[in-house]
C-alpha cells in the first residue's frame, strides 16, 4: 500500500496573501524523500499550475479548474511532443460554450456580479493581489468562469436553479463563485488511483488537503483528509472517517498536517 497527497493550492499549500509555500518546505522535502507524490488539484488554470509545479520541482500529474482538467495521466506517443505538449483530459463543458448563456441569465435576472470573461487585467489584479502577468494566466480559463459575487443569497439561488437546467453548477469558494459543468475536485480520483496503482502495482491511498468549500468533495472522497482553517478561521467538516484539522492556516497548516501523517499514517 502506498500513499499520494492530493492538495488544493490557494489558502491550503499557498499562503493566501503571498501565494508562497515557504511554511511547508520541510514537509514537501520529506514527501519527496519518501517518494510520496504531491498532486496539485486547484481552481487555477493549466498555465498557473504549471508555474507552481516548476517552483516545486513537481513532475506528477495535476488537476486544474476545480477538477475539470486532468493533466499528465497519459504519456504522449512521441517523446519530442511530450516536451512541448501535455496530455489533458476535459471532464466538463468548455467555458466558451456556456459563457453566452451565462450572460443571458445575468441580464434576465438582473444579477450583480463581475465575471473573469468581462473583467480587465487591472480588475483581476485588484481582486486577487496577483501581478499582471499572473493575472493574465488566471484569465486563461477553459472549463470554468469565476464570478466576483456582489448580490444576495436569493439571487445566487436563482442563478443556481437556471444553471441546473443547462447542466451547469455554481460552486462557492472563498473569493469567487465558480460556474462549471457537473464535475468536482474528486472527479479525478478514480483516474489517479488507476494511474498510480498501475505504476506501482500496489493499492493506492489518497490523502487530500483543502481549506475551502470547493474542496469538500475531494475531502469526503479521500481515504484521509487534512483540513486547513480558512480566512475566517473556520474549518470544513467533511464526512470522512479519518480527518485531521490543522490549527494553523496555510502554509504552516499544510506542514502541520503532513507532520501528523508521518507520525500516524505513512
Structure, explained:
The protein contains 10 helices and 12 strands. By secondary structure, it is an alpha/beta fold. The protein folds into 2 domains: 2-90 and 199-264, HAD superfamily/HAD-like (Rossmann fold), CATH 3.40.50; 95-181, Threonyl-tRNA Synthetase, Chain A, domain 2 (2-Layer Sandwich). The strands form 3 sheets. Strands 2-1-10-11-12 form a 5-stranded parallel beta sheet. It has a 4-stranded antiparallel beta sheet with strand order 6-7-9-8, with helices on one face. A 3-stranded antiparallel beta sheet has the order 3-4-5, with no helix packed on it. Helix 4 (95-109) packs across helix 7 and helix 5 (121-128) crosses helix 6 (132-139). The longest helix is centred in the middle third of the chain and has 15 residues, at 95-109. Residues 79-83 have low confidence and may be disordered.
Write the layout of secondary structure elements.
Elements: E1 2-7, H1 25-33, E2 38-40, H2 46-56, E3 62-64, E4 69-71, H3 79-82, E5 88-90, H4 95-109, E6 113-115, H5 121-128, H6 132-139, E7 145-149, H7 153-164, E8 168-172, E9 177-181, H8 189-200, E10 204-210, H9 216-221, E11 224-227, E12 243-245, H10 252-264
Parallel strand pairs: 1-2, 1-10, 10-11, 11-12
Antiparallel strand pairs: 3-4, 4-5, 6-7, 7-9, 8-9
